[in-house]
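Data card: per-record layout.
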Amino acid sequence: RPKYITRKLLSGDLDLGIVGLDTFNEHGQGSEDLIIIHEALEYGDCHLSVAIPQYGIFENVNSMDKLAKMPQWTEEKPLRVAIGFTYVRPKFMKENGLKHVTFSTADGAQEAAPAMGIADAILDIVSNGTTLRENNLKEIKGGVVLESQVVFIASRKSMIQQKGVLETTQEMLERLEAHLRAI
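The structure for this 183-residue chain is written out next.
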């Protein structure tokens, strides 16, 4: 699992890694030790996005603005959002006018949460939208929290202290950039 790569870098068990920017932000952001060596490897394009049911009370809702203006979201009955990523939730929702929101963390299968009645919306990674459509969900305008693709990351401490890590990093970076120029 990609999150383990970030955790292993933080613990010192790994020196270098390749993960999605979303994973780096979720599990490594805020660490003084982890750095992004190359941020555009042009692979694994996806985005973190808000999705809601296509039907019912959401049938005519097509934007974050319309979602925020729905009168049913109150302090007593907030919008319930199933999430797999925790780093963006309150700030993004507040910036988009949603004051009354609760979050439930799920390790996968967030798409099923609205149909099960345990969430009104989801915040999840979307690559081509097939899983959303299969679960009668839709993305909404303004609902993209983060654009993501694969990034090359490293432990700053390892690059400084571990013999050969800096040289290996430079060689890998040169090869990655040569490949990107060739395509």
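Known properties of this structure: The first strand starts at residue 16 and ends at 20. The chain has two domains: 2-43+149-182, 46-147.

See the next section for split statistics.
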